[in-house]
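EI: anyone free to look at a 138-residue chain?
SC: sure, send it
EI:
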Amino acid sequence: MAKKTLQRTFNDVLAILGGQRFDVAPAQEGAKRTPNAVQVRKYGCAAEIAAAPDGTVEVLARPGWLLNGEISRLLDRGYQKFIKTSKLEIPATADHLRAIHEFSEELNDAIGATSLYNQSLGTTSNVYHYDRVKGRDE
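SC: here you go
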Protein backbone atom coordinates (compact mmCIF):
# COMPACT_ATOMS: atom_id res chain seq x y z
CA MET A 1 0.00 0.00 0.00
CA ALA A 2 1.32 3.43 -0.95
CA LYS A 3 2.38 5.75 1.83
CA LYS A 4 0.64 9.09 2.04
CA THR A 5 3.08 12.00 2.10
CA LEU A 6 2.49 14.70 4.64
CA GLN A 7 2.21 18.20 3.13
CA ARG A 8 3.84 20.65 5.49
CA THR A 9 2.82 24.27 5.69
CA PHE A 10 5.29 27.05 4.96
CA ASN A 11 5.49 28.05 8.64
CA ASP A 12 6.09 24.43 9.67
CA VAL A 13 8.95 24.18 7.16
CA LEU A 14 10.52 27.42 8.43
CA ALA A 15 10.39 26.07 11.99
CA ILE A 16 11.97 22.76 10.92
CA LEU A 17 14.72 24.53 8.95
CA GLY A 18 15.49 26.82 11.90
CA GLY A 19 15.74 23.78 14.17
CA GLN A 20 18.19 22.13 11.75
CA ARG A 21 20.52 25.15 11.84
CA PHE A 22 19.67 26.51 8.42
CA ASP A 23 20.14 30.27 8.04
CA VAL A 24 16.73 31.62 7.04
CA ALA A 25 16.62 35.21 5.76
CA PRO A 26 14.44 37.27 3.41
CA ALA A 27 15.47 36.77 -0.23
CA GLN A 28 17.65 39.47 -1.73
CA GLU A 29 15.78 42.19 -3.61
CA GLY A 30 17.32 41.36 -6.99
CA ALA A 31 16.54 37.66 -6.63
CA LYS A 32 13.08 37.94 -5.11
CA ARG A 33 10.40 36.59 -7.43
CA THR A 34 7.44 36.57 -5.10
CA PRO A 35 6.53 38.44 -1.96
CA ASN A 36 7.65 36.87 1.32
CA ALA A 37 10.26 34.67 -0.39
CA VAL A 38 13.06 33.52 1.88
CA GLN A 39 16.56 32.28 1.19
CA VAL A 40 17.75 29.29 3.19
CA ARG A 41 21.49 28.66 3.52
CA LYS A 42 23.71 25.95 4.95
CA TYR A 43 27.09 24.39 4.02
CA GLY A 44 27.82 27.31 1.64
CA CYS A 45 24.72 26.45 -0.41
CA ALA A 46 21.41 28.25 -0.76
CA ALA A 47 17.90 27.96 -2.18
CA GLU A 48 14.87 30.25 -2.29
CA ILE A 49 11.47 29.14 -1.07
CA ALA A 50 8.12 30.83 -0.67
CA ALA A 51 4.60 30.01 0.44
CA ALA A 52 2.47 28.54 -2.34
CA PRO A 53 -1.15 29.72 -2.69
CA ASP A 54 -2.36 26.54 -0.96
CA GLY A 55 -0.09 27.18 2.06
CA THR A 56 2.57 24.59 1.20
CA VAL A 57 6.14 25.35 0.14
CA GLU A 58 7.22 26.30 -3.37
CA VAL A 59 10.91 26.11 -4.32
CA LEU A 60 11.72 29.22 -6.37
CA ALA A 61 15.45 28.68 -6.89
CA ARG A 62 16.86 25.17 -6.97
CA PRO A 63 19.61 24.50 -4.41
CA GLY A 64 23.08 25.52 -5.52
CA TRP A 65 26.44 26.75 -4.28
CA LEU A 66 26.38 30.37 -3.11
CA LEU A 67 28.96 32.20 -5.24
CA ASN A 68 29.40 35.98 -4.85
CA GLY A 69 25.95 36.20 -3.26
CA GLU A 70 24.24 34.44 -6.18
CA ILE A 71 22.83 30.91 -6.20
CA SER A 72 24.75 29.03 -8.87
CA ARG A 73 23.61 26.35 -11.28
CA LEU A 74 25.44 23.07 -11.67
CA LEU A 75 26.55 22.53 -15.27
CA ASP A 76 27.70 19.09 -16.49
CA ARG A 77 29.95 19.05 -19.55
CA GLY A 78 30.54 15.30 -19.49
CA TYR A 79 34.15 15.43 -18.36
CA GLN A 80 33.71 17.97 -15.54
CA LYS A 81 30.98 19.65 -13.52
CA PHE A 82 31.04 23.44 -13.25
CA ILE A 83 29.40 25.92 -10.91
CA LYS A 84 27.95 28.73 -13.02
CA THR A 85 26.39 32.08 -12.16
CA SER A 86 25.43 34.91 -14.48
CA LYS A 87 28.94 36.38 -14.19
CA LEU A 88 31.27 33.56 -13.20
CA GLU A 89 31.97 29.90 -13.92
CA ILE A 90 34.34 27.73 -11.87
CA PRO A 91 35.09 23.99 -11.83
CA ALA A 92 33.14 22.16 -9.13
CA THR A 93 35.18 20.28 -6.56
CA ALA A 94 34.15 17.16 -4.68
CA ASP A 95 33.54 19.33 -1.60
CA HIS A 96 31.14 21.55 -3.59
CA LEU A 97 29.22 18.52 -4.85
CA ARG A 98 29.02 16.92 -1.38
CA ALA A 99 27.75 20.16 0.14
CA ILE A 100 25.11 20.68 -2.59
CA HIS A 101 23.96 17.06 -2.26
CA GLU A 102 23.70 17.17 1.52
CA PHE A 103 21.95 20.54 1.45
CA SER A 104 19.43 19.33 -1.15
CA GLU A 105 18.68 16.16 0.81
CA GLU A 106 18.11 18.04 4.07
CA LEU A 107 15.97 20.70 2.38
CA ASN A 108 13.79 18.10 0.61
CA ASP A 109 13.39 16.21 3.87
CA ALA A 110 12.30 19.38 5.71
CA ILE A 111 9.86 20.33 2.96
CA GLY A 112 8.45 16.82 2.79
CA ALA A 113 9.27 16.43 -0.90
CA THR A 114 9.53 13.05 -2.57
CA SER A 115 13.02 11.55 -2.42
CA LEU A 116 13.97 10.25 -5.86
CA TYR A 117 16.37 7.33 -6.28
CA ASN A 118 18.68 8.98 -8.83
CA GLN A 119 19.00 12.11 -6.71
CA SER A 120 19.81 10.06 -3.62
CA LEU A 121 22.78 8.48 -5.40
CA GLY A 122 24.56 11.80 -5.87
CA THR A 123 24.38 15.35 -7.11
CA THR A 124 22.33 15.94 -10.23
CA SER A 125 23.05 18.86 -12.55
CA ASN A 126 20.75 21.63 -13.72
CA VAL A 127 22.18 21.52 -17.26
CA TYR A 128 23.88 18.75 -19.23
CA HIS A 129 26.02 20.07 -22.10
CA TYR A 130 28.36 17.62 -23.82
CA ASP A 131 30.99 18.82 -26.31
CA ARG A 132 30.74 15.65 -28.39
CA VAL A 133 27.28 16.53 -29.69
CA LYS A 134 27.94 18.87 -32.61
CA GLY A 135 25.20 21.13 -33.96
CA ARG A 136 22.50 20.19 -31.46
CA ASP A 137 22.02 23.77 -30.23
CA GLU A 138 21.21 25.11 -33.70
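EI: The chain is about 25% helix and 30% strand.
SC: 👍
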